[in-house]
Design brief:
The protein is of the alpha+beta class. The protein has 6 helices and 8 strands. The strands form 2 sheets. A 6-stranded antiparallel β-sheet has the order 1-7-8-4-3-5. A two-stranded antiparallel ribbon has the order 2-6. The radius of gyration is 17 Å and the shape is globular. The chain starts with a strand and ends with a helix. The model has no long low-confidence stretch (mean pLDDT 93).
């Protein structure tokens, strides 16, 4: 389970260094590949298996599974998988966020992935947030967490 939040800086080559605790969970022997997918104001990083579970889970509704004959589901699944970028975690633990722009120009700019960011554990994946956006998200969350924890 990936947990915690870690302030990081995006280097001049558009890379971030993943926290060591994340690398231990994401890298297995020679398997160093992850999938990055931008959505919801952040970039989400999954193992290849975790990404497949994520996408498949989106189409599991009321006991139904993905239906390739449904044009809407096919369009949505294609859109998700087309926006995902496969990157390797290098030997120094870095991930090249710049590859997001190769898939869809301007992605890093739209998501504010320059300068200061926060890498956040989100259970089965990690998220990369613009530091200012992350701080605003946290400020708005305090009340909701209290309500959840204390049934307020």
């Amino acid at each position: 389970m990936l947990t915690g939040s870690y302030p990081m800086s995006v280097d001049a080559k558009g890379r971030i260094t993943l926290p060591a605790v994340f690398r231990k969970q994401l890298v297995e022997d020679e398997k160093r590949t992850i999938k990055l997918i931008p959505y919801g104001g952040r970039v989400n990083g999954f193992t290849p298996e975790g990404f497949k579970r994520f996408v498949d889970g989106l189409f599991e509704v009321g006991g139904e599974q993905y239906d390739a004959r449904d044009p809407r589901q096919e369009k949505l699944k294609r859109g998700l998988t087309a926006r995902a970028v496969e990157v390797d975690i290098d030997s120094a633990g870095r991930v090249a966020l710049g590859k997001l722009d190769a898939s869809r120009a301007g992605t890093r700019e739209r998501f504010g992935l320059f300068g200061e960011v926060v890498v956040v554990g989100a259970d089965d994946h990690f998220e990369v947030w613009d530091a200012t956006e992350w701080e605003a998200e946290q400020e708005s969350l305090d009340e909701e967490l209290d309500a959840l924890l204390y049934h307020a």
